[in-house]
Amino acid sequence: MPQKHDPSTPSTAEILYAARRAASLLPEKEQETLKTLLLRARRGDKVTVHILNVLSKSPSAQGWLQHALYAPPLNTRGYEGLPGDPVEIPARSLWRCPKCGFTWRVLRKGRPVPPCPRDGSMLERVFAGEAGNDVG
Ligand SMILES: [Zn+2]
């Protein structure tokens, strides 16, 4: 997937969050490596590059990560928007897969909502009060 020009580079927090959510897309061995790296990141080690490296070993994980971290071009419609009715995705909004319950939190306004990494479903917005305790 070609890298789009995006002035708002994902923060470390965004990358780490997306990496945790993308873990299930990796082969078992890489999942273990990723888990170790995420633990090191939590302790303050600068391992973001290594984390991205592990994720790049799986085309599906890498593609999903691109989708999750990089805003789509400005001229495309918003997520699930009606034609001509772009939807701006607010920061901190919570999204959930209607099939498997995978949840995703949009950390920064304007970020795209990725499809479910497990089954490819379009995620649905969860509004306050319906979130339960699984807030990713
Ligand atoms: Zn799902």
What's this model, at a glance?
By secondary structure, the protein is mainly alpha-helical. It has helices spanning 12-22, 28-42, 48-55, 59-69, and strands spanning 94-96, 103-105, 124-126.
Describe this structure in words.
The chain is mostly helical and about 140 residues long. The chain has a domain at about 10-70. Helix content is about 35%, strand content about 5%. The protein contains four helices and three strands, in the order H-H-H-H-E-E-E. Strand 1 (about 95) and strand 2 form a beta hairpin. Helix 1 (about 10-20) packs parallel to helix 3, helix 1 (about 10-20) crosses helix 4 and helix 2 (about 30-40) packs antiparallel against helix 3. It binds zinc ion.
Number of helices: 4
Number of strand elements: 3
How do the strands line up in the largest sheet? 2-1-3
Structural class: mainly alpha
Q: Which H/E pattern describes the elements?
A: HHHHEEE
Low-confidence stretches: 74-82
Helix content: 25-40%
Distance between the termini: 26 Å
What Rg, in angstroms, do the CA atoms define? 15 Å
* Average pLDDT over all residues: 83
What ligands are attached or bound here? zinc ion
Shape: globular
